[in-house]
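Q: Hi! First time doing this. I have a protein sequence and I read that you can turn it into a structure. Is that right? Here it is:
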Amino acid sequence: MDDAASEIARLRAAAASEVRAASAEADRAQVRAFVTTSEAMIRHLKLEIAKMRREQYGRVRNGAPG
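A: Yes, that's right. Below is the predicted 3D structure, encoded as structure tokens:
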């Protein structure tokens, strides 16, 4: 009976470890999605800023405004 109890404990520990690993992977996927979305938003906002600067100051040629 002692062998069966230790086997059950080992299996429970293994199952708990797998659950934690799956949860950690899901957390990583969520973080990656957030970072990707944030990077896309930053690119979009940089383009919007450049557009507004062109509207305000005109196109820049040879490093000089005008």
